[in-house]
Amino acid sequence: MAVLKIKHALAVLAIIAAGCGETTDIRERADEQPESGGSAVVGVASGATTILPALAAAALDFELGGNLFLPLNSASWKDGGLRYEAPHPLALAKGWTFGHDSSSLTYTLDTSHRWSDGQPVRAQDVVFKNTLSG
Are 50 and 61 in contact (CB under 8 A)? Predict the structure, then answer.
């Protein structure tokens, strides 16, 4: 029984020690600008089943697909209604126009968006993504 108590106490001490370390108040870093490039590592409780939007079934799948494939436009809730803002930094389109009878919508891509290899996002990439989405 004494061995169990010692193991329990050591486990508690290890957990407490793991939480000790340097902390930074986020308000101290509020003026910092994000850096381009690099990697972000996000821990998740389970594995993704797919990164293809059309096959997404779990919440993590939808989140991964949403981070991999930016939308053409982005909406937010403001003043009691849904507002589409152009341009939006997380949207591929910098604008759009409706056809004369409103049966078509033409997007103008924001040419500043690039893939990780530096290649621009093209209309063919958007068609590919939308084909995957069904």
Answer: yes
CA distance 34 to 25: 17
Q: Share the mean pLDDT of the chain.
A: 77
CA distances from 5 to 9, 12, 14, 38 (A): 6, 11, 14, 45
d(CA 112, CA 118): 10
Written as one letter, the residue type at 114 is: R
CA distance 128 to 134: 10
pLDDT in tens, 31-82: 777 677 777 777 777 777 877 777 778 888 877 777 777 888 887 888 888 8
